[in-house]
From TrEMBL:
The gene is lolB. This is Outer-membrane lipoprotein LolB. Its main location: membrane. It comes from Candidatus Symbiobacter mobilis CR. Transmembrane segments: none annotated. InterPro entries: LolA/LolB/LppX, OM_lipoprot_LolB. The keyword Metal-binding does not apply.
Length: 144
């Protein structure tokens, strides 16, 4: 029997230092829809009003980002995420947390049960993720 596809949605807020600068980049806040895993998946960022800001897709052949009808190609999921949110947000850590699996990443501090707060000091990045209520219920049912 095949595993059901993994899907999550919720709200996300990101603050990060701009690459090559001591200044903070404009903050990103809104909704997200995440499907799949590290090897194959999709991530959609939405504005607070629900407008699609960016759609990321990845598989074993590479990754793409679609913004305002234009598609860019990348080598892998980390490259497309880093270019999209100006930070090396560890996708594997985010996916593990949503699944309820501890996954430390060097330089990142993750805390919270119903709120993921991941923080890296150098370069500064702070991510807050709040899954939708249904996603939390699925996580709680799947947690031993």
């Amino acid at each position: 029997m095949l595993d059901a596809p993994q899907q999550w949605s919720g709200r996300l807020a990101l603050r990060a230092q701009c690459p090559g600068s001591d200044n903070e980049c404009p903050a990103l806040a809104g909704g997200y829809e995440l499907e799949g895993g590290v090897d194959r998946g999709a991530l959609v960022f939405r504005s607070p009003l629900g407008i699609v800001l960016a759609e990321l897709r990845w598989d074993q052949h590479g990754a793409t980002r679609r913004v305002q009808g234009k598609t860019q190609h990348y080598d892998d999921v980390q490259a497309v995420v880093a270019d999209t949110v100006a930070a090396g947000l560890p996708v594997a850590v985010l996916l593990d947390w949503l699944r309820g699996v501890p996954s430390p990443a060097m330089g990142w501090h993750v805390g919270g049960e119903q709120l993921l707060v991941a923080r890296q000091e150098e370069p500064f990045v702070e991510v807050r993720v709040v899954p939708d209520r249904d996603a939390l219920q699925v996580k709680e049912r799947g947690t031993p």
